[in-house]
Amino acid sequence: MTEIETAALIAALARSQRADERRRADQTRPRRPTSAPVEPVTATDRPTVSIRDEGVASRVAVYTAVLDAGSRPAPVETEPDSGVDHVCFSPDPQLVPHGWTSRPLPYWGTNAAQTRLYVASHPATLLEQYDATVWIAPALLGGRSTDVVVDALQASTSATAELCCLPSEPDGVDLELERLSRSGVSGTAPFHELVDRALRDGRRDLIGTSVLLVRANRSPRATVFDRAWWSASLATGASDDACLHLAMAVTGIRTDVLGTAFQQAHRSMLDQPPVKIGRAKGAAFDPSVERERVHAAVVRHEAVLQQTPPGGPSLAVIVPVHDAPDFTVRCLESVVATVPDHADLFIVDDGSAGETAGICARFASDHDATLLRSENASGFGAAANRGLDAAAGHEHVVVLNSDTVVPRGWVERLQAHLRREPAIGAIGPLSNDARHQSVPHVTDSTIDWSHHERNEPPSSVDVDAVNRFLAAREPEPVSVRVPVLNGFCMAFTRGALDLVGGFDLDLFERGYGEEVDWCFRAVDAGVELAVALDTYVYHAKSRSYTGGSIADLKSIAATNLRARWGDARPKRALRALARNEALRSVRADIELLFTMVGDD
Prior knowledge:
Elements: H1 3-28, E1 52-53, E2 56-57, E3 60-65, E4 84-90, E5 101-104, H2 112-120, H3 123-126, E6 132-136, H4 147-154, E7 163-167, H5 172-183, H6 189-200, E8 208-216, H7 220-236, H8 240-251, E9 255-257, H9 260-271, H10 287-306, E10 315-321, H11 325-338, E11 344-350, H12 354-366, E12 370-374, H13 380-390, E13 396-400, E14 404-405, H14 410-420, E15 424-430, H15 463-473, E16 479-481, E17 489-493, H16 494-500, H17 514-524, E18 528-536, E19 538-539, H18 548-565, H19 568-579, H20 581-597
Parallel strand pairs: 3-4, 3-6, 4-5, 7-9, 10-11, 10-13, 11-12, 15-18
Antiparallel strand pairs: 1-2, 6-8, 7-8, 13-17, 14-19, 15-17, 16-18
Helix pairs in contact: 1-10, 1-15, 1-20, 4-9, 6-8, 7-8, 10-15, 11-12
């Protein structure tokens, strides 16, 4: 085996040991009691989301998110042709019992509640193959069986509502109103109006709770509702139920409480004694099996790089440039050596001085690239937007800083993620210096970007070696959803750019902060953001501006971000990135790589 494959093998063993340590810690952690059962309403059964179409059963997913051993559901035995699948999103497959399909946790929020809310509010993208979905909060599970709930769901035949939920506990509405009043959150008038209307009509039971939700997964308005629910959480930081009602009121989704039969089933589930589930024993770590897997992954990675790319204007790579000739040469050399022949390269010379201007002109001429030059520097955002305008019509567009070095296959990997998961509208790679996308250490955890430690790879480890290692550590391409991306390298879909637009030049004309603002606008528009855990791009950092101008630009950017988004949202985004276990895991593995094959 090569040194890279050996390091990947040892990293796999280290991940297995870390997972064991987390499970042992979970078993000793105190547990909260499960929620009290909700009393069924006395009204006649009301319509629920249809899971039948002219007598033909549709595909239904019962899904949850389990972060620790204390909320594991009971095993299930489901008939193959029942049309009901059980899906469990978890950071650890060993927490997923028999009968539940294991899916990796796609997102880490500021806390466990927001992490679960992401899963609850994204069935249209996470479970798009299903006709209807049933979210069950892990607090209701804890070793209990979902059979009675599924049976009640299967008995439902009416279809006038797009979303159904359990009614809130009697004091739940008053509690949410009180919490919202204390929080000072703006924009909650729709929630107050919805509550007032329900109480006037004598329908307090219409004010629901998010612990159990049934949706028509293919309803366009249900998808809009899900986006509004998630956006409300990011914007306000309010509780799941408060954000649920904000989204209901804003989108006008057809909502009803689940019928009495379903509520009785829910109560029956809570009345069940929890099933004692012992610690799951994973397969022993077999070095020979792992060695074969790692080697196969490396071979597959090399084969992907040899594939002939599709034709047509599918890809544009935009490199804004301002001075820093040595770094510009290094960046452009790596780009022209790695981008596929069908890609269109746009070099945006943002008022560079003579030497750098000559470099840009020479590369454009020698490599059939488009040169867009401004005589005066207008700032990164303006330069990037010029490139985005010129690249209109391309399926995927990459904006790449001119102080980067890219490896073989970097852009194909980013494109593969965008094509594999259409919900992702923008994705970025790992790097040595890209805040929370940095490996092996976070380069800056503060909101004002006041310091940047270095994660320089050892001289014996180049960018291609890091990418071979990342390809070997996972059998398939892996990405993780995030609330914000670093702007040093971002790959966009055409749909995301058409929906969100380019960078905001009114607030961020000279650079810094424009990518954070774009990401917040994108998330609020329903665009998913992700980091590719199998791609690494080297970043020299801030070489286009020197001295005091960097500090000035950062200060202006921080002020403008606070003016538009407040203090809380950027801080919540940073906390979510800091908690992201997928990013933590890849950092630990890269540190192991650098230690094993680094300089003596």
